[in-house]
């Protein structure tokens, strides 16, 4: 078994881990990144499926994601805007298709008024939330004890309004049923994007893509690290103490002064810690779980919906595919639609055969775009729930009451062990932007700790001679 010694061990070669490693390298510390998968990128994955380039994982860049935008620019990558010319479509409770422009769904005037009023109320509440400290709000305990669905239904008995308001943070972002997480967790999701209005504005939150795919961000960061990124190296044991850490994989022993766990918190229990992590972490990690969503890619010989004057943007809380977008690649003659099947609906369709599931999903897409949507030349389902080193999508969130109870300890280091991933972010929560922010934060924490340790060492002789 080979031995490696570094200043810092990083577990996970996604955006958080590769960012942290580069920040530490710049500051003069030596690093090694151990990645369990056979590829760099984590929940970012761009691949060619049946001749079509698909972004199997995360892909969008919104204008408030400063950390991601800075990184994209610094790496020399180009972006392009999501296609959005023409009408969007909405399917109402009666199954009827409605074309519309703008942000508001084409609902009755009464329902529109309710949505606008509750949105204004939510924006005011979100404005009071510090995304880095949602647990510190005076009403945090109260808001963490009521479900997102229950709170919305307290505001109105207009079911269509409630469903449309609920799915923005439920099916669309946290990818859990709206009765399974709290109002506070929903407010954090909105605060991480700047406001609830931002979160429900597809033109904002799904603004641009990277030419060639977003996975290039961690790939290019990893290239700078060269041989210090090692794939197919799941960490089995992590011994830790006052003098640092020792990690073992099936092939390596790595000794370092510090460690960063830069992967989803649902995977912490895949590592045997010696000694065990403190009680607080054991409890906290049991109250974090992944959501679940199927990202559906349907590629056609051309973007036929544009011929109908459609932007490709589609929504309905009543459809199996609750939202879909034009996802055509830059300068591609073919057209691609991407749709999402979330939470309970995703569970249900996986009870079906692959052929039945495909038929149901394409049928739902046809309700938005017409019968031609049933005949893609390439069809692919991103199923992160079966991915061993992810186990869900898009990120982990707390169960009821967990955010208020454990939020303040979410990013707290344990001795020499630090934590960094998009699941732990405030701004950019669940997004690549948040992963980069957390990678930078963990690196800064280690550099601060290292400076303090050096200062202590320098002081000791003076004290001895006093």
From TrEMBL:
Organism superkingdom: Bacteria
Is this entry keyworded Oxidoreductase? yes
Tell me its cofactors. FAD
Which positions are annotated as binding FAD?
35-36, 235
Q: Which Pfam families match?
A: Amino_oxidase (PF01593)
Keyword check for Translocase: no
What EC number is given for this enzyme? 1.4.3.10
Question: Which keywords has UniProt assigned to this entry?
Answer: Oxidoreductase
- The entry marks the following residues as binding substrate, namely 340
Q: Which InterPro entries match?
A: Amino_oxidase, FAD/NAD-bd_sf, Flavin_amine_oxidase, Flavin_MAO
Any one GO molecular function term? putrescine oxidase activity
Ranges for domain Amine oxidase? 16-447
- What protein family is recorded? Belongs to the flavin monoamine oxidase family.
Q: Which PANTHER family match?
A: AMINE OXIDASE, AMINE OXIDASE [FLAVIN-CONTAINING] B
**Which named protein is this?**
Putrescine oxidase
Tell me which species this is from.
Microbacterium azadirachtae
This protein's encoding gene: puo_1
């Amino acid at each position: 078994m080979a031995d490696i010694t570094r200043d810092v061990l990083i577990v996970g070669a996604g955006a958080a881990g590769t960012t942290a490693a580069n920040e530490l390298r710049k500051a003069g510390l030596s690093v090694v990144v151990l990645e369990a998968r056979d590829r760099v990128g984590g929940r970012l994955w761009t691949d060619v499926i049946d001749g079509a380039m698909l972004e199997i994982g995360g892909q969008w860049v919104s204008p408030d994601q400063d950390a991601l935008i800075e990184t994209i620019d610094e790496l020399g990558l180009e972006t392009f805007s999501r296609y959005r010319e023409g009408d969007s479509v909405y399917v109402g409770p009666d199954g009827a298709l409605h074309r519309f422009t703008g942000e508001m769904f084409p609902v009755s005037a009464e329902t529109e008024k309710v949505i606008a009023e509750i949105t204004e109320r939510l924006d005011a509440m979100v404005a009071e939330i510090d995304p880095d400290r949602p647990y510190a709000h005076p009403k945090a305990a109260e808001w963490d004890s009521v479900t997102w669905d229950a709170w919305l239904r307290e505001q109105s008995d207009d079911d269509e309004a409630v469903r449309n308001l609920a799915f923005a943070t439920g099916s669309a972002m946290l990818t859990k049923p709206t009765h399974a997480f709290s109002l506070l967790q929903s407010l954090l999701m909105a605060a991480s994007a700047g406001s609830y209005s931002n979160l429900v504005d597809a033109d904002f939150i799904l603004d641009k893509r990277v030419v060639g795919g977003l996975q290039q961000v961690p790939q290019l960061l990893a290239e700078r690290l060269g041989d210090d990124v090692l794939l197919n190296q799941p960490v089995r044991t992590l011994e830790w103490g006052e003098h640092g850490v020792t990690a073992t994989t099936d092939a390596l022993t790595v000794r370092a002064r510090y460690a960063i766990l830069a992967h989803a918190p649902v995977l912490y229990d895949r590592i045997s810690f010696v000694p065990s992590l403190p009680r607080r972490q054991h409890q906290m990690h049991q109250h974090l779980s992944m959501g679940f969503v199927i990202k559906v890619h349907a590629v056609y010989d051309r973007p036929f919906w544009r011929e109908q004057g459609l932007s490709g943007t589609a929504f309905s809380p009543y459809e199996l595919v609750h939202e879909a977008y034009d996802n055509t690649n830059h300068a591609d003659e073919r057209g691609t639609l991407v749709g999402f099947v979330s939470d309970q609906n995703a569970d249900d369709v996986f009870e079906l055969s692959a052929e039945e599931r495909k038929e149901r999903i394409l049928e739902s897409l046809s309700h938005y775009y017409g019968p031609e949507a049933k005949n893609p030349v390439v069809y692919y389902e991103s199923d992160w729930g079966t991915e061993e080193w992810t186990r869900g999508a898009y990120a982990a969130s707390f169960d009821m009451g967990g955010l208020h109870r454990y939020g303040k300890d979410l990013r707290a280091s344990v001795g020499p062990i630090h934590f960094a991933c998009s699941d732990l972010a405030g701004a950019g929560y669940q997004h690549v932007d948040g992963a980069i922010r957390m990678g930078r934060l963990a690196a800064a924490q280690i550099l601060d700790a290292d400076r303090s340790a050096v200062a202590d060492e320098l002081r000791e002789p003076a004290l001895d001679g006093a």
